[in-house]
Amino acid sequence: MSDPPHLTTCNRSVVHQSRERKRRGAGGRGVPRALRPHRRDILRRVLAGERSITTLAASYDMSFAAVQKHVAVLERAGLLTKRRHGREQLASGDVVAVRSVASMLDELEDVWRGRIARIDDLLRKET
């Protein structure tokens, strides 16, 4: 038997989610999931060098499971990779992927700066 569409089962407990939040992707208020503050900090740390999830979790005032979830989002976004070494999971940043994202964001910034400049020009002409 499957859960109703507005419920998610995780670790044998049911987490209620509104349909609207689920539809938005639970990223919240327009901030892409991979760019949330804790995730940016995790990414910064793993770009500096490979880190175990345990070491990362010790750096934050949140549970190990919460840090694992942040790492999983970054992994799904292709910004870091994980590997096993014995019992530990090690995370390392993907520099090429981060540079690609940075390049894309630079291009978008140029587009928006151009649009804002054109709006400024139109406003000056009207006054």
CATH fold topology of the largest domain: Arc Repressor Mutant, subunit A
Tally of domains: 3
The total beta strand count reads: 5
Q: What general outline do the C-alpha atoms trace?
A: elongated
Strand percent estimate: 15-25%
The main sheet orders its strands as: 3-5-4
**Strand and helix order:** EEHHEHHEEH
Helix share bin: 40-55%
Question: Layout of helices and strands, plus pairs?
Answer:
Layout: E1 7-10, E2 13-16, H1 19-24, H2 37-48, E3 51-52, H3 53-58, H4 64-76, E4 80-85, E5 88-93, H5 95-126
Antiparallel strand pairs: 1-2, 3-5, 4-5
Question: Any key phrases for this structure?
Answer:
single chain, alpha+beta, 5 helices
Write a short abstract of this structure.
With 127 residues, the chain is of the alpha+beta class.
Overview of this structure, please?
Residues 30-107 form the HTH arsR-type domain. InterPro entries: ArsR-like_HTH, HTH_ArsR_DNA-bd_dom, WH-like_DNA-bd_sf, WH_DNA-bd_sf. This is HTH arsR-type domain-containing protein. This protein has 127 residues and is an alpha+beta fold. The protein has 3 domains: 1-30, no CATH class; 33-93, Winged helix-like DNA-binding domain superfamily/Winged helix DNA-binding domain (Arc Repressor Mutant, subunit A, Orthogonal Bundle), CATH 1.10.10.10; 95-127. Helices cover 54% and strands 17% of the residues. It contains 5 helices and 5 strands, in the order ββααβααββα. The protein has helices at residues 19-24, 37-48, 53-58, 64-76, 95-126; strands at 7-10, 13-16, 51-52, 80-85, 88-93. The strands form 2 sheets. A 3-stranded antiparallel beta sheet has the order 3-5-4. α2 packs across α4 (64-76). The longest helix has 32 residues, at 95-126.
